[in-house]
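Tokens as discussed.
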């Protein structure tokens, strides 16, 4: 099961890099905020198809009122992510922007795990994680060199 989860996470990384490049191309034509809007509209249409027409959901959408308010902030953050990924890729290129994104993601994820934020199971902080982040940051620095 661990390998399946690892493969899914890898696929997510590939998809995010491709999505960032596609969205940046769209943003260069219609504008960054406009493309963020279009991407969310298309994503909403796909989800309506999957959830309501194909009935692929396995959860309980009827429990939407049971959710703590702060868990809805993911929708707001989604707009921030799409916009800033496009802006970063447009200025830095896909590889450099993605490298910076990954360093930010991993550093924040270690903190969220350590604190057990938003219902996550607490994962102990170790010096190996510090070393991993330092090596990741060093690799990012190498990626930014010309």
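Sequence:
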């Amino acid at each position: 099961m661990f390998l399946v989860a690892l493969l899914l996470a890898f696929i997510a990384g590939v998809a995010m890099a491709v999505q960032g490049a596609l969205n940046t191309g769209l943003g260069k034509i219609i504008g960054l905020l406009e493309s963020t809007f279009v991407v969310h509209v298309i994503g909403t249409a796909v989800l309506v198809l999957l959830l309501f027409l194909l009935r692929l959901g396995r959860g309980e959408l009827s429990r939407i009122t049971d959710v703590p308010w702060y868990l809805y902030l993911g929708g707001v953050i989604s707009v921030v992510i799409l916009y800033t990924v496009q802006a970063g890729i447009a200025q830095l290129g896909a590889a450099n922007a993605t490298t910076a994104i990954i360093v930010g993601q991993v550093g924040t994820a270690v903190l969220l795990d350590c604190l057990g934020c938003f219902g996550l199971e607490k994962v102990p902080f170790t010096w190996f994680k510090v070393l991993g982040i330092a090596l990741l940051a060093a690799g990012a620095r190498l990626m930014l060199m010309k």
